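thread from #wetlab-drylab

HS: before we spend reagent money on co-crystallization trials with methionine sulfoxide, can we at least see a predicted complex? here's what I'd submit
DV: go for it
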Amino acid sequence: MDYDKLLEKVRCVDASRGMKEGLQMICDILESSVEHYDWVGFYIAEKEELVLGPYSGAPTDHTSITFGKGVCGQVALSKEEMVVQDVSSEDNYLSCSIHVRSEAVIPLLKEGELIAELDIDSHSKFAFTSDDMEFLRAVRDHASTFF
Ligand code: SME
């Protein structure tokens, strides 16, 4: 995967589109371009809850997640990215689908406060390499300009 090229495509989605449409386009680009990204979405922080925003992939029951619950909720508290390379080994995990094997969650912060999270699910174990994480951090940085 040529992440440099893909990042150029993501950066072409500019903030003039508005948050909802812009984030949706970013989800669609990632989910359709990277084979091992099977669900790509944003959760928006509202008080102590993460509310599901734009996403690409199968619908999820987890439309609202309390801080502390699951991988996303842990990231909301720590404000640090989290990669779970094998979800069966994570006790504090909310399953979206039986097919998901690994997950990466990257926080979006503004002035140190959590504003949103970028969440990627994969149907493969050990899907996220250091190249993936570098790419996803750059996607997160661009997505932050929509807030
Ligand atoms: N697996 C996540 C829940 C969100 S879904 O992956 C879309 C978690 O444990 O927080």
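DV: The chain has a mean pLDDT of 97.
HS: ok that's useful, forwarding to the group
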